[in-house]
Amino acid sequence: MGALIGGILDVIAALGMIRFKDFYLRLHALTVGVIGGSFYPLILLGLYSMIKLPYPSNYYVGGIALTTAFFILITAPAGSHAIARAAHRSKHVPKPAVVDRLREDRESGVMN
């Protein structure tokens, strides 16, 4: 079941990469694909191996799966935020945003 949910979310992310025209929206679609395509299957694998198959080696596998899922949940949004910020600062984004609060704050002196 987890692989099915992950596969569906990966397909949705791939469609987002094809359909979205803006760099930031495509980056969001990729982040949804990474989190949805790997987080949910790992959570379900960890819970299944710890609950349905209660052997000592399966607790180890379940713990690793849950730890990896938590690591992906924490690092994927942080990584996409860093990529988006670097793209914004380098000014190589193809289409400018309609509202650019970061540029407005920088010009007003709030940010460096």
Description:
This protein has 112 residues and is mostly helical. It has one domain. 80% of the residues lie in helices and 0% in strands. The chain contains 4 helices and no strands. The longest helix is centred in the middle third of the chain and has 35 residues. The mean pLDDT is 85.
What tags apply to this protein structure?
112 residues; mainly alpha; 4 helices
Gist of the model:
The protein has helices at 2-19, 23-51, 56-90, 101-108. The chain has 4 helices and no strands.
Amount of beta strand: under 5%
Mean pLDDT: 85
- Termini separation: 48 Å
Low-confidence stretches: none
Give the H and E element order: HHHH
> Total number of β-strand segments?
0
Please give the domain count.
Answer: 1
Rg estimate, integer Å:
19 Å
Describe the largest sheet.
none
Overall structural class, as computed from helix and strand content, comes to mainly alpha
Keywords: Membrane, Transmembrane, Transmembrane helix
Pfam family, one: PhaG_MnhG_YufB
GO molecular function, one term: sodium:proton antiporter activity
Organism: Zestosphaera tikiterensis
List the helices and strands and how they pair.
Layout: H1 2-19, H2 23-51, H3 56-90, H4 101-108
Helix pairs in contact: 1-2, 2-3
Organism: Zestosphaera tikiterensis
Pfam family, one: PhaG_MnhG_YufB
InterPro entries: PhaG_MnhG_YufB (IPR005133)
